[in-house]
Design goal:
Order of helices and strands: HHEHHEEHH
Radius of gyration: 18 Å
Shape: globular
């Protein structure tokens, strides 16, 4: 019997949080806090993003994102860029160091997950792939 949608949503949310915590725990060399890592990831994947948009995506207040951006900038991971057309707008762009640090962290976190996936049976791997496809579809819409 298939459980109700709310139960599935709850299980998916919990699994996602557990996976995130596990990946952070295995990354003993992490140099960033969780909020810093999340923010630099968004900036790198965006290429360039307005601070207000980053605050919205990270679900934090403008003062919080200003402080967080300041921490990343002080570490040489992002650059602040004024918008030439609107003095109220501040853009954040990743530096080469920010891109490097993110890539290294992703490699460290992906390695133990890759090893765990490689230990799965063919049937479990097929189930994982099917579940991942469904999850990706859910997140697109």
């Amino acid at each position: 019997m298939i459980p109700p949608a709310a139960e599935l949503a709850d299980r998916l949310t919990l699994a996602s949080m557990r996976l995130t915590r596990w990946l952070r725990a295995v990354d003993a060399a992490a140099q960033l806090s969780g909020p810093q890592a999340s923010a630099i990831s968004v900036v790198v994947h965006s290429g360039r993003i307005r601070m207000s948009d980053l605050a919205r995506l990270e679900e934090v207040s403008r003062p919080t994102i200003t402080r967080l951006a300041g921490e990343l900038q002080a570490r040489g991971l992002v650059e602040r860029q004024a918008d030439p057309d609107d003095g109220r707008v501040v853009w954040l762009a990743p530096t080469p160091e920010g891109r490097r640090l993110l890539a290294e962290g992703q490699s460290r976190r992906i390695a133990p997950l890759t090893a765990a996936i490689e230990r799965l049976s063919a049937e479990a791997l097929a189930d994982l792939l099917a579940g991942l496809a469904v999850t990706e579809t859910l997140l697109e819409g």
